[in-house]
Amino acid sequence: MGSTISAYTSCVTSMKQASNTNVEEDDLLDGRDGEEDIAQFPYVEFTGRDSITCPSCQGTGCIPTEQVNELVALIPYSDQRLQPQRTKLYVVLSILMCLLICGLVVFFLFPRTVGVQDGGIRMVKVWFDKENSIVNLAMTSTLGFTNSNFYSISVDSLISQVQYMNTVIGTQQQTNVSVVQPLSEKLVNFTVKLELGGSLSYLYNFCTLSSVKVHNIVVFVRTSVKFSYIGHTSQSSLETYQYIDCGANSTLLVDHHAL
């Protein structure tokens, strides 16, 4: 009797194990079939009771390449990419940088006054016209230019007029005189031809008088100079009185460094 009960118990246990194995195999098959069904199921958007197929991927789960530039990605408001990162600091630094650049541009490009200084007379050559009682002179003068700008200055024109006793005795005009380099000085020589005749013919006797060693006369020199730089034009004038010897050639050595 005992052996019969044991055999019956073993049979029941085997049947239960077999039954459990079949159930697990059925569940595994059902799971695989479910995955295949899910893979074939289109992507849908659930909105309450009804459902709508995803318009961007048309239910395929993939976005077409030609529509990539037409779609917009939604970013949460709390995303760090939407939060300003030191915006005020960057704005302040940008403003300071712009002000610094503008200040430097104004400092270097702001036009400064070009200094013009009379360097005196360097040389005088004399010729006598005995027949017409005329004294001809060639007076070479010097002008000193000082450029305080950070760019070159062009001396476009120079006009010099010489008078004796309110009578114009010579005029000289030059163009494209010279170019003065930045932050430098330059000396420019120019020659004016003078003629003492007509109403001033009496000076012929004075200038040729042998009993007088120095035949100095005073002349009034008015010089006008025009400059141009970076689209700006300016003008400077000088008025001086000079002594010249009308009786003989004379040369004066000028100290350029003193100018």
UniProtKB/TrEMBL annotation:
Domain Transmembrane protein 106 N-terminal span(s) in chain numbering: 15-88
UniProt keyword list: Membrane, Transmembrane, Transmembrane helix
Transmembrane segments: 89-110
One Pfam family it belongs to: TMEM106_N
One Gene Ontology CC term in the entry: endomembrane system
Residue ranges that the Swiss-Prot or TrEMBL entry lists as coiled coil: none
Chief location bin: membrane
Keyword Repeat among record annotations: no
Presence of the UniProt keyword Transmembrane in the record: yes
Compartment(s): Endomembrane system
InterPro entries membership: TMEM106, TMEM106_C, TMEM106_N
Boundaries of every Transmembrane protein 106 C-terminal domain copy: 111-251
Family statement: Belongs to the TMEM106 family.
Protein name, per record: Transmembrane protein 106C
